[in-house]
Amino acid sequence: MDELNALRIFIQVVDEGSLSATARRNHLAVSSIARQLKTLEDALGTRLLNKTTRQQSLTEAGALFYKKAKHIVSELDRAKRDISSFQQSVKGLLKVYLRTSAACAVILPALADFLTRNPQLTLDVTLGDERIDLIANGIDVAIFLGHLEDSSMVARRISPSQRVVCASPDYFKRHSPPLTPQALTQHNCLIYQADQYGELWHFTREKEKIDVPVAGNLHTSSAPTLLAAALSGLGLMVVQKWMVSKAIQDGQLQSVLTDYQVSPTVHDTALYAVYPHSRGLSPKARVFVDFVIELFRQQERS
Questions:
Q1: Which of 125, 142, 247, 287 is the most exposed place for a label (fewest CB within 10 A)?
Q2: Who contacts 225 (Cβ-Cβ below 8 Å, separation ≥6)?
Q3: Is pLDDT of 168 > 90?
Q4: pTM more than 0.70
Q5: What domains can you pick out in the chain, each with its CATH number?
Q6: Residues 30, 46, 70, CA angle at the centre, nearest 5°?
Q7: Phi then psi for 167, rounded to 5 degrees?
Q8: Rounded CA gap, 7 and 12, in Å?
Q9: How far apart are CA 213 and CA 12, in angstroms?
C-alpha cells in the first residue's frame, strides 16, 4: 500500500463528502477509491468512515486520524515546496577558500559529486593555510583550522581535533613501535612547523597528562610534505585523523599510542567553516557547508 497516497485519498473523501466526487477528481473508478480506503482501514485495524447509500460520516477514530493525517500531508507538501525553492536558489558562483590539508585529503576528491548534485553552481576554489581577509578577497566560505577571534565572522565547527601518531610499516620494520609517549624521544619525529606549534607533543589519557619533547631531521610548515615524508618511511608524525584515515585503512601507515589523545599544540585545532557575519549564510554557501560537514562525519565513522 502506498501510505501517502492512501492518506491523500482519505482526506479528499472527507473533504469532498463522497467517494464518487473523489473518484471524479482523481479520474479513478469509485471501486478503486473504496478499495484504497478499505486497505487503509485494514492496516489501521479500525473503521474510519460510516457509509450509507446517501451519506458518510467520520467515526471517532476517523475524526482523530483525519486531523493528524491532514497535518502530516500539509507539512510534507510545505517541506517539498521549501526544498524546491531552496534548490532553485543554489546557483551561480561560490568562492571558497580551503585549508590545504583538509582540501587535499577529504574535500577535493568529493567535489565532482557535489557539483553533480548542484548543476547550476560554479565553484571558485583557492587553497591555503593563512587566515586571509574573506571580505577583501570576496570569499563566501572558508575552511579554517582553529578558533576564530574575529567577531565580524561566523564560525561553524566541522570536525573536532582528533590527531594520531603514525608512521609507515617500513619505518616500523627498522624501529620498534613506541609503547609509551616517552619512547618517542628515541625516534625520528617529523615536526610540523607553524605558529603555536613546536617540538613538544602533548598526550592525555583520562587524568594522565604527558608532555614529550621530540626531535627529528625534518621540519616543515607543509602538511602534504609531512605526509609524503611519513609515507616514505622517514619517521613518525602527528596529524589530524581525517588526513590519514585512508592511508591507515590501506595499510600505508600504522598508528601507535592509540589509547592517548595527542596534539602538537595546546591551542584549538578543530576545523571550522567560516563566513562573514554581515552576509549571513546564503543557500548556496549553506549547501556547501552541509556537504563538507557530512564528508567529515563519514571520516569520523570510518
A1: 125
A2: 218
A3: yes
A4: no
A5: 3-88 (1.10.10.10), 92-160+269-301 (3.40.190.10), 163-263 (3.40.190.10)
A6: 65
A7: -155, 175
A8: 9
A9: 74
